[in-house]
Structure formats: C-alpha cells, structure tokens
Amino acid sequence: MYTFSNRLKIASIILMAVGLIGITYGFITMPGTVQEAKNIVASNSGDHHGDEEAGVEAHASDSHAEAGHDSKHDEHLLHKLQNKPWSALYVAALFFFLIALGVLAFYAIQRAAQAGWSPLLFRVMEGITAYLLPGGIIVFAILLASVAHMNHLFVWMDSEVVANDKLLQGKAGYLNGTFFLIRAAIFIGGWVFYRTISRKLSLAQDEADDNTNFVKNFRWSAGFLVFYLVSESIMSWDWIMSVDPHWFSTLFGWYVFASMIVSGITVIAMVTIYLKSKGYLEDVNDSHIHDLGKFMFGFSIFWTYLWFAQFMLIWYANIPEEVTYFVTRIQDYNLPFFGMVALNFVFPLLLLMNSDFKRMNWFIIMTGIVILTGHYFDFYTMIMPATVGDQWSVGVSEISSVLFFLGLFIFVVFRALTTAPLQPKRNPFIGESKHFHY
Amino acid sequence: MASKVIHAFYNDDDILMLAVKKVKAAKHHIEEVYCPFPVHGLDKAMGLAPTRIAITSFMYGCVGLIVSIVMMNYIMIEDWPQDIGGKPSFSYLENMPAFVPIMFELTVFFAAHLMVITFYMRSRLWPFKEAENPDVRTTDDLFLMEIEIHDNEEELKSLLADTGAVEINISEK
Asked: Less CB within 10 Å around the terminal CB: N or C of chain B?
C-alpha cells in the first residue's frame, strides 16, 4: 500500500492555497468599467500590447471615425480584460481535466488491447483518473457560469451578439446554453461512469477466484472507447472550438485528442517514476519506462502531424472565413503559437529518439516537463485568442490557475493511490507484465 | 590456409542458447552461428557488439532533409521566384508549409534507402552472391555453431557433446 507522504501533501496544499490567492487577485483586479480597462492598457503601453492597441485604434479611426464605433471598441476591450482571469482559470481547469481524460482513454486502450506490459501500471492510471470527478465538476461549473452570463468566454451565449449575427443564428440549434450543458453533463457523466465501473471491476478482480471481472472490464473498456471517440470529438467542438463560433475545422477533435493523450501518457510516466523512486512499484523496470517513452515520442509526432495538417490545409487554401483563426494566432500569439511546436515536436523528437535515453528516468522527467508545458500552451493558444485577443499575457492569473489545479491534481491523484494496493493481484497478464523486458 | 573447424548441430533454439553460454564460459571463440530464424537474445549471449545502423539512418535522414531544403530553396525561391497562385515566394520561411510534405518524404526516403543499402554492404548481400551456409539444413530446421580448432579437437568435441549437440562434424575451411 502507498502512503501519501506528508511533504507531498503539504506541497499540494500550499500550491492550492497560493493558486487560490492568485486567482482571487486576478478577479479583484479585473476592470469593472471601460475607463478602468483603458487605464490598464495605457499603463502597459511600454510593452508590445500597447503598440498593437495603438495600431488597432489608428485603424479604427481611419475607416470608421464615428463615436459609436469607438465606444463599441472600448467595450470590447473591457470584455477582453474581464475575460482574462476567467480564461486563465478555464484553460488550466481544462488542461488538467483533459490529462485525466487522456489517461482514461489510454487505460481503456490498454485493457481493450489486452496489453501484456501495462497491467503493472493500471493502479497508477486508475489513481490519475480519480481526478476526473472533481476536475469534471469544476469544468462543468465554469461552463455553467458562462451560460449564466457571469463571463464572456463564449460569444455565442450573448443573445445581443446572436441577434446581430446571421451565422450564429444558423448555429443556434446546436449552440444554445441548455443543449450545451446537457451535452457536457452526459459526457462528463459517461466518462466518470466508466471510470467508476472499471475501477470497481479492477479491484474485484484482485479478490475473485475466476476471471469474470477481467472479462467484464474488457467489454466495458471496448464499449467506452466507442463512446469516448464520439463524445471526445463533440466535447472539443463544444468546449474549445465554440469559443471561435465562426470558425470550424473537421479534424479538430483528433487534434485535441492527440494533445490530451500525449499529456496523459507523460503524466503516467512521471507518476510511475516518482512512485518507483520512493520504493513502491518494485516490479516496474526500465523497459516499462522505455515503453511509456516510446508512446510519448510517438504521440508527440502524431500531435504535430495533426497540428500541421490543420494549419497547412488552411494556410494553403487561404479561404478568408477559415484563415482568420491562424491570422490572429500568428499576429498576436507568435511566440506561444510557434514556441509550442518546438516544445511539443522538436524537443521530444530529438530527446526521445535514442533508445538508451528512454530508459533514463531523469530524461523522461525532463522531457515530460517540456511536453506538459508545450501542451499547456497548446490549450492556451486554442482558447485565449478568442476570449482575450491581443490582451494576453502569462501573468498572475495564468500562473496561479496552473498552480491551483496542479496542487488539486496532485492531492486528488496521490490520495486515490493510497486507497488500493499499487500492484494488481490476479490480473491474468500480471505475470507477463512483471517479466516484461524489451 | 587449411584450418579446421568444428560444426556442432542443434535442433532447438533453447538448447543452442545454453550451448552458446557454456562455450563462452569455457572461453572458446565462436566463429559463427547459423540459424533458420532469428533467435531472441543470441547476439547478447554471443557477446556481439550492438548495431549502429540506427545511427547511420539518423544521419542519412539529416542529409535528406538538407537536400530537400537546399533543392527547393534554390528552385522555388532563388532561381525563379514566380507567383504561383499567390503563394509567397519571397523567402523560404514564408512558403515553408508548402515544402514540408517534400521535406518529410525526402528525409524518410534517404533514411530508409541508404540504411538498407548500408545493411546490404555491411552484411555483404547482393544478387548472384554465392550462398555461404555450410549445411543446407541450417535454413530449414537445424542450428549450427562453428568453432575453429587449435589442436584441441577432442576437448571441443566432448564439450559440445555435453551441450546437447545432435551431430558434430569436423571440416576443412
């Protein structure tokens, strides 16, 4: 049995406390009026945002020099600044929730594929997916707050905007608050449901004297993967793509999936290495780590493939209604947008190519940190351009949101790890997994 | 040079593995082992150095990448920068996404083909090459271990007989 070390528990609580203070600070300093918003931008005029703001204003006065448009622009600026703490919270909540969801998908794949190497890691994966329930509740609460008009994350939820927008009216059958929340509830419920069932069967298999629980778990996992594939795709349209409701991309669901599964596998590897370094998981050897490293490597390249496939098709055809998505990202988010490709592709490609490197724990940890940072910025550049636009920064709100959810994630995951033995007792493949050697 | 070698035949890869370990423990140099299929771990048991073919492949891939970049930069950007459907041919970076499929394919092409050719050259394989197997049965169901004899014929014979060899031959090489 694993015992949650006090130092880690205190560290996670400190992370949560510091994060919470930072998040509160972000909401308190959020501008309430147009004048405050203008002052914030004016005080930042030394940096690059100020320059861009000046450019936008110049453009506005060039083409439509009417007072009405100016005030509209100012109000838009206010909304962007008001969205900042909300977006920071939403990106971090989504990032950590999708890590747990990626782990759940990987876990179901391992079960459905009857993999012989991974049963030793099943308890680690089950521990990580314990975050699904609290994480899902928080994400749902943020979505609920959006539908309740507490923020402007989703522009299609603003009835005034919809009234003046033919495109959004056409999509209102799908993009409306009630249906949106029902879908979210069904998806989160379905994922948590599979996780609960599978965990229960996995624990029951330890005490059983036949393999019925294992077979049942196999069937549930295969069924879940079908549900997951559909729900994950719709989830990515709902929660991520719909912040840009004028834009659409067909491979977006796959792209989000690649991002979450590579982060999930990275977290499995990191938690496994941590537990092994503490003397738990004795039977895990460097071949298991090597396999996880291969998955990190392979899925990093898969992510890049999808990122590039989406980017290149839109860049090449250059159809105005699609290309605005990347125009705003390249103009306003140049460093995070291209920087994350370096972090998510070039680093893992060069660092994890060598077979010997994939067996070194510190190497996997270092690469894992790079990959997780990269994928945080992946979600960052998916959400932020639509919600805060050119007013982005990585400041107090963003960092403390990440710290808060990191603390919560560590707390939930490692507490869940203490509730069951870290090694499944009579999984039919456990012997193979113990002697796994590559 | 008329050196004599001893050929020990085995009919099971597990027995062969044990035999290889025993012969290595007795400090005899194993000239060659002929198998009808790859035996997992045989190279480790024989103490063969790991292959470096993956490293050559990586370097060939880098060459392919450079070739593709230099080629397209010269053709599309420097030599005749035409406006083709509005694509920005002002600099390589501006038009790079359009070149990536070719960069990728040439990298893979160079890495794969040059590595295969390296493998053929290094293991001396080519059409019309004379086959080198000392006994035709080694391509079907027998494993053969070849050890050179240095005036220790009887000792080697008894050692190999102990390891479960089904047949032991002495032949001139």
From this structure: N
